[in-house]
Design a protein that fits this description.
Length: about 650
């Protein structure tokens, strides 16, 4: 029996273990003190504590201790670190991924660019770091040479902006990758992010499994991904997928990898961006649409077979496409209030596919054929603490249908059935985005979300459903959570509840209730103005949480709806999220101008500048560089100038 250690956590660790166990492998998880009882730990046959997921020596030692002959790195953490690959090789352990030399070659954008040129793959025009900025054709993109994921990346539109952008990008790159080397390239104003899934075995075969479109991004962080890329012509698809294979073959690539390209909407030309030498977060959309000899694929299974030395045993002609798939990343963040990271205890969690062992809900037609699939990869359950110490992604909702529209509709339905109470997630934002006419009809480029605002949902319906939950129960009702008296033949008198103002409760409403962790959780259904509405409701002593169409609302029993972080209208700047202070730029007594950056903090991969609300004098500095601060902690106080 093969033993596989998964050097990761969360949903990807569980997803890898599921396939490994199906193939008869023994699985090993690693964990820190913060997540010793996490779902991925319980999913493994054995678990080992490490000080950090980034500790190469500790992870290799864990593999040795458990007799693991193979290590799957997932994504993030050590997945693209060549020292980790070399340490495993020296220990006689096989990494489920490419070699350390290939990671070195492709892990840096500057080196990968040269390999792309050698393979005949087009690259984005660039500028030298020592070139005169006045000679650049703006806009340009400053980006880290040593990493990806949008870290260390800034769009610059004038020469005057370049020094500050370079400094910020370098600082971010050094923090994320330990290397502040930068590249400066042409910035394509309207481009699409197209990536090719490739896989090579140790026998010289390199194949592509078609492409994905990951253009729906916010500040270079992917939000929605889909496959195949919509509106891509057959000629473009053939050219891009061929370029991906050519690049992988040029570098001698083995196992799964992704070659990323930028497609210029203005010209139709495409340019190589980078290669991710690992499995991608969005790999499920490829699995949902790609068929090998008419069978659905499992990329992790193919990875494991390649790692054991097996040949792929298929040709490019065996690989075809069927239908369309879209993936949405569920994050612990408040998308309608600055996308600020959230932390806390998820008091109640329900995923739409949790009743299925494989996390997939299939829809069949009258003949029994599968016409739709909803898949959820996650690692979040009721009562779990979500910490800012880890990535904010909680799970992924993936929908497949016969075409893009069918997949889109199924995705919206799935997102609206995700229920997370106790902390705010981006599920409501994702549902609103996927349901929008713009996403349905527009060819979205990588900057579309930065230019367009997804309207925040109003709270009227949620407030109404919450008020129903608080309404007085009929006399004689045995179950305090059932409104049986409102279903009698006689029309009941209207019920008015104070919930941020008087709310008249609808009379035709049904309620079903479960109890989770000793707290009442209800599903409320109501027909309002001829439309059916549903919500998940949780009652606490101070407030009522209502989850309606994926969006979480918190209503105080007396105050108006308020689900936002602290504000700074009086010159007091408080931490809008729990996190780490990266920089403190001012001292007490210092005069500052309106908009001047007083300090910078970071949480869950997001960097936020705290700026003076008006011109004045700093009267208080409440934190130092490196401090861990809580949500609402007072960081700076500015007294307005006379």
């Amino acid at each position: 029996m093969h033993t596989l250690l998964v050097a990761n956590r969360g949903e990807i660790a569980i997803r890898v273990m599921r396939t490994a166990k199906r193939l008869g492998w023994r699985t090993v998880a690693i964990h820190t003190d913060l997540d010793a009882d996490a779902p991925h730990v319980r999913a493994a046959d054995r678990a080992v504590r490490v000080e950090s997921y980034l500790d190469v020596d500790a992870v290799v030692a864990a593999a040795r201790e458990t007799g693991a002959g193979f290590v799957h790195p997932g994504y993030g953490f050590l997945s693209e670190r060549s020292p980790f690959a070399r340490a495993l090789a020296e220990a006689g352990i096989t990494l489920v991924g490419p070699s350390a030399d290939v990671m070195d070659a492709m892990g840096r954008k500057d080196a990968a660019r040269e390999i792309a040129l050698a393979a005949g793959v087009p690259v984005v025009p660039s500028y030298g770091l020592e070139d005169d900025p006045e000679t650049f054709a703006y806009p340009v993109l400053v980006k880290a040479a040593a990493g990806g994921g949008g870290k260390g990346m800034r769009v610059v539109r004038t020469a005057a902006e370049l020094p500050e952008a370079r400094a910020a990008a370098a600082r971010e790159a050094a923090s994320a990758f330990g290397d502040d080397t930068l590249l400066i390239e042409k910035y394509v104003e309207s481009g699409r992010h197209i990536e090719v899934q490739v896989l090579g075995d140790t026998h010289g075969t390199v194949l592509h499994f078609f492409e994905r479109d990951c253009s729906t991004q916010r500040r270079h962080q992917k939000v929605l991904e889909e496959a195949p890329a919509p509106t891509l012509s057959a000629e473009q698809r053939a050219a891009i997928t061929t370029a991906g294979v050519d690049l992988a073959r040029e570098v001698g690539y083995t196992n799964a990898g992704t070659v990323e390209f930028l497609l210029d909407n203005a010209t139709g030309e495409f340019y190589f961006l980078e290669m991710n030498t690992r499995l991608q977060v969005e790999h499920p959309v490829t699995e949902e649409v790609v068929r090998v000899r008419d069978e659905r694929i499992d990329l992790v299974e193919l990875q494991l077979r390649v790692a054991t030395g097996e040949p792929l045993g298929i040709d490019q002609a065996d690989i075809t496409l069927e239908g369309h798939a879209i993936e949405a990343r569920v994050y612990a963040e408040d998308s309608f209030h600055g996308f600020l990271p959230q932390a806390g205890t998820a008091s109640y969690v329900s995923w739409p596919t949790e009743m299925y062992a494989d996390g997939v809900e299939a829809t069949h037609d009258d003949t029994g054929a599968v016409v739709g699939r909803l898949r959820v990869d996650h690692a979040l359950e009721s009562g779990q603490v979500v910490s800012t110490s880890f990535d904010p992604m909680l799970g992924k909702v993936i929908a497949w249908g016969s075409d893009r529209e069918a997949a889109r509709r199924r995705l919206v339905d799935g997102l609206e059935r995700v229920a997370v109470l106790g902390l705010t997630t981006n599920t409501g934002f994702l549902a609103a985005l996927a349901a929008s006419d713009e996403f349905r009809d527009t060819t979205i480029d990588t900057a579309w979300l930065d230019r367009h605002e997804v309207p925040a949902p109003t709270d009227e319906v949620a407030r109404l459903l919450g008020a129903h939950f608080l309404a007085p129960r009929p006399t004689g009702t045995s179950d305090p959570w059932r409104h049986d008296g409102w279903r009698s033949a006689a029309a009941p008198a209207p019920v008015v509840v104070e919930l941020g103002g008087p709310v008249t409760v609808p009379t035709e409403t049904s309620v079903s209730v479960v109890h989770s962790a000793g707290e009442p959780i209800a599903w409320v259904h109501a027909d309002i103005d001829g439309q059916r509405h549903s919500a998940t409701v949780r009652d606490t002593s101070a407030s009522v949480e209502v989850l309606h169409r994926g969006q979480r609302f918190v209503f105080d029993r007396h105050d108006p709806f308020a689900d936002h972080g602290p504000e700074a209208g009086d010159g007091t700047l408080k931490a809008p999220m729990p996190g780490t202070v990266l920089a403190v730029n001012v001292a007490e007594g210092q005069a500052v101008a309106e908009g001047e950056t007083l300090g910078v903090m970071e949480a869950m991969k997001m960097e936020l500048a705290l700026k003076a609300p008006f011109a004045g004098t700093v009267t208080s500095v409440g934190a130092a560089t490196g401090d861990l601060v809580k949500l609402g902690a007072t960081l700076f106080v500015v007294e307005a100038a006379e």
